[in-house]
Amino acid sequence: MEFVKIVAFCIAAAIVYGVLHDQVTAHLCVEYFTIAHPPVFPTESPFLLAIGWGTIATWWVGLPLGLALAAVARLGSRRRLSLADLRPVIFRLLAVMAVGAALAGFIGWYLAAIPHGWAQVIPAPRHAVFAADVWAHLASYGLGILGGVFVVGATLWRRLAAASTTLDR
Fold it and tell me: How many domains does the chain fold into?
C-alpha cells in the first residue's frame, strides 16, 4: 500500500505544482496557451487553461518519478522508506523547480528570446512575457526531470548507506 501512496503522492504533487505554475504563466501570457499549444480546451480563461494544462502536462512526469521513487524506497530487503520519509525531499524538489522557473522566466523576459518561428505569430508587445513563459516551463521540466533522477538516486543511496551502517555495527 505504501508503494501506491508514494506513486499517487508524486502524481498529485506534480499536478498541483503544474496547476500553480500555470496559474502564474497563464496569467502572465495567455498566448503561450492559446497560440503555442493545441486547442485542447475551448476557453481563453487563464484560470481554466492553467488547471487544464497544469494537469495534462505534468501527471506524466509525476508517474515515472513516483514509480521509480517507490521502487527504490520499498523494494528489496533493506529498511524500507515510507511516504513520510520521502515527502520532505519531494517538497524540496518542487521548491527548487519553482525558484528555477522564476529565475529562468525572469531571464527569458529580460532577453525576450522566444523560440524561432513564434516571433511572427506572437504579437511583438507580448514577446517578453511569452519568452518568460517559455523559459519558465523549460526550466520546470528540466529541473523536474533532472531533480527527479537525483531524488531517486539519493533515495537509493540513503537505503544502501543505512544498510551498510547497520552491518558495520
Answer: 1
| Contacts of 43 by beta carbon, 8 Å cutoff, 6+ apart | 49
CB 62 within 8 A of CB 14: yes
* 45 dihedral zone (left: phi>0; alpha: psi -120 to 50; beta): beta
pTM: 0.92
Confidence of residue 164 (pLDDT cuts 50, 70, 90): low
**Whole-number Cα distances in Å, 40 to 53, 57, 99:** 9, 12, 28
Helix (H, G, I), strand (E, B) or coil at 86: helix
CB 6 within 8 A of CB 73: yes
Residue keyed to cell 533515495: 155
pLDDT per residue over 79-130, tens digit each? Answer: 999 999 999 999 999 999 999 999 999 999 999 988 888 999 999 999 999 9
Q: Comparing 74-78, 115-119, 149-153, which segment has the lowest mean pLDDT?
A: 115-119
Q: Are 10 and 65 in contact (CB under 8 A)?
A: yes
Domain residues for 30? Answer: 2-168
